[in-house]
Every structure is written in C-alpha cells, then in structure tokens.
C-alpha cells in the first residue's frame, strides 16, 4: 500500500480488498474484553482537525489507541492557527514532534495533498473541503460487504446533496474499483458540474431507481455549505428526494439503507427508516473504528503482526 491515503482513487482493487480483509481480522479485537493490540506501540498519530467532526476524530483516536499508538489531538480552534499560522508552519511543527502519521480534516480541497510535501510521516485525508473522504468510503464498503457479500455487480444509489459531499465522490470512486454500479440521484442543482466524468450513472428520479438498488445511501443536506437556493424548500426536497416509509416499500427485501451522518431526520431520511432493521447507520459508526485501524496499521507497517501473524 502507498505511504499516504489522500483519495479513494489512490487505491487499486488489490489495495482496497487488503484494507477490507485486514479490517475483518481486526474486527475480532472489538469482541475481546481487552480491545488493544501492541502493533503501533511507540508510533505517534496526530489528529489535525481544522473543521469540527466529533465522530471522525473520535473514530481515528480510538483506532490509533487500540493499536497502542500515542495520539495527539490538535484542534485549530484556540491554537496558533487561529492566530494566523499557516498549514505549512503547523506541518513543520508536527514534523519536529516526530509524527509518524497525520490525520487531517480541512475546509480547503487539496490541503492533505499539500501536507504530504512538508511531513515525512503518512498523511490520511479525513475530509478536505468538498473533495474527498476516503476512509468513510472504505467503512461504507466494509459495511456493505458484511451485509451483502461481494460488491461486484451490486447496484448502489447515492441520493441527495452530491454537490457538497466529499463522501459521495469517494464512494463513487471506491465502489467502481470494487465492481459495483453506482447511480447518483439528486436534483440538477445539487450535482457537480464535472459529474459526467465520474464513473457512475445519474438520475433525477428516486422512485425509478429504488426498486433496482441493493444499497440506498442517503446523504446529509449540507445547509451550512449552501449560500444559494438549491431547492425550493426543505419540504419540497423531502417530498422528492427523502426516504420515508412509503419509499422504503419500493426497495427489495435484501436491500440496505445507509447514511454517513449526521442525519437531518425528517428531511432526507425519516426517523422510522433510520432506526429500522434495514438501516446500517449504527454499524457504520462501529465499523469506522475497525477500518481506520486497518488503514493506520497498513500505512505505518505495524512492528508486529496484527492478529496471529497473518498480516
């Protein structure tokens, strides 16, 4: 595997399957009474978050600690960054501290790629602007594979605010690599200009896509990133693109419902759908720790085999 994880496009099919298979083995750790391995003892992982994200940061922190790494949490709020320090200056500080890996979330697309120029350790993209979020795509694929088996030929519908979603882009790239067929479903105003170049299909009609889908992934409507009228009203959006009980009836019996969170309950997804047995939303959170353990383990080349000497 390469030294950094910046984009889902960086992963070959072999790389992706290796991460998912490693995560499957590491999942055994979560079932133990002592949820810890010595594999990254003596390594330092820095969580460098310029944007708030409780779940992703905690997930990476838990993953590193379960592998016995030392963890430093660096929040831009209240730090020198808020006083005008640049990303490069911050990177050089982390380099001086001897960071073996830097997990970065940043509001600017491309920030993680820039960081690779200034630190000698591995860089993991935990979300950059509206660009990508590769570990979210990996945990989504891991969740799908546990529920559905091999993803080759599976049909995945990704529904909603694709324009502002780094999760959607990473999922399209990774799922294509794994052989799944992806359809993006959204109003035209919530699709990126360059979506024609993505390896997927596009539809504006959710009701037509649902019966053919094995996975329905609902995206959060990112109202905080919107400074224009992308749809007439929340009610109108929900009527055309929300997943409610009536629409759930159109999905075949083995299909699953996903959401990367946090959810706008009642807008893109009804509470009863989010909490149903077909929903994998809670599993996705738990699987996030396992998958991020696998990514850190493979990037940092753990000093000891992960489990039973098999990795």
From TrEMBL:
Metabolic or biological pathway: Pyrimidine metabolism; UMP biosynthesis via de novo pathway; (S)-dihydroorotate from bicarbonate: step 2/3
Ranges where the Aspartate/ornithine carbamoyltransferase carbamoyl-P binding domain occurs: 3-145
Reaction equation(s) it catalyzes: carbamoyl phosphate + L-aspartate = N-carbamoyl-L-aspartate + phosphate + H(+)
This protein's UniProt keywords: Pyrimidine biosynthesis, Transferase
Family according to the record: Belongs to the aspartate/ornithine carbamoyltransferase superfamily. ATCase family.
Cited function: Catalyzes the condensation of carbamoyl phosphate and aspartate to form carbamoyl aspartate and inorganic phosphate, the committed step in the de novo pyrimidine nucleotide biosynthesis pathway.
Protein name per its UniProtKB record: Aspartate carbamoyltransferase
EC number: 2.1.3.2
Gene Ontology terms for molecular function: amino acid binding; aspartate carbamoyltransferase activity
Gene Ontology cellular component terms for the protein in this record: cytosol
Biological-process GO terms, alphabetical: 'de novo' pyrimidine nucleobase biosynthetic process; 'de novo' UMP biosynthetic process; amino acid metabolic process
Assembly mode: Heterododecamer (2C3:3R2) of six catalytic PyrB chains organized as two trimers (C3), and six regulatory PyrI chains organized as three dimers (R2).
Domain named Aspartate/ornithine carbamoyltransferase Asp/Orn-binding: residues: 153-299
PANTHER family: ASPARTATE CARBAMOYLTRANSFERASE, ORNITHINE CARBAMOYLTRANSFERASE, MITOCHONDRIAL
Binding site for carbamoyl phosphate: 55-56, 105, 133, 136, 261-262
Residues that hold L-aspartate according to the record: 83, 166, 220
Pfam families assigned: OTCace (PF00185), OTCace_N (PF02729)
């Amino acid at each position: 595997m390469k030294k950094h994880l910046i984009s889902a496009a960086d992963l070959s099919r072999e790389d992706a399957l290796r991460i998912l298979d490693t995560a499957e083995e590491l999942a055994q750790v979560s079932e133990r009474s002592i949820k810890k391995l010595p594999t990254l003892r003596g390594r330092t992982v820095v969580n460098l978050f310029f944007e708030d994200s409780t779940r992703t940061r905690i997930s990476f922190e838990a993953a590193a600690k379960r592998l016995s790494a030392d963890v430093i949490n660096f929040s831009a709020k209240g730090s020198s960054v808020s006083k005008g320090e640049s990303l490069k200056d911050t990177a050089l500080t982390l380099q001086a501290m001897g960071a073996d890996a830097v997990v970065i979330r940043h509001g600017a697309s491309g920030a993680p790629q820039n960081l690779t120029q200034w630190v000698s350790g591995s860089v993991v993209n935990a979300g950059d602007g509206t660009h990508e979020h590769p570990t979210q795509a990996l945990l989504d694929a891991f969740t799908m594979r546990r529920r559905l088996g091999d993803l080759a030929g599976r049909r995945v519908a990704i529904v909603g605010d694709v324009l502002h979603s780094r999760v959607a882009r990473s999922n399209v790239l990774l799922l294509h690599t794994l052989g799944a067929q992806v359809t993006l479903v959204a109003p035209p105003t919530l699709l990126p200009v360059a979506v024609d170049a993505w390896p997927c299909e596009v539809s504006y009609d959710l009701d037509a896509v649902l019966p053919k889908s094995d996975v329905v992934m609902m995206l959060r409507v990112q109202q905080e990133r919107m400074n224009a009228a992308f749809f007439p009203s929340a009610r109108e959006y929900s009527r055309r693109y929300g997943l409610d009980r009536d629409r759930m009836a159109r999905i075949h019996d083995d299909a699953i419902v996903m959401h990367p969170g946090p959810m706008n309950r009642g807008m893109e997804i009804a509470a009863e759908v989010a909490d149903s047995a077909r929903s994998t939303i809670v599993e996705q959170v738990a699987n996030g720790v396992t998958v991020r353990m696998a990514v850190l383990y493979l990037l940092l080349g753990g000093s000891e085999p992960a489990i039973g000497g098999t990795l």
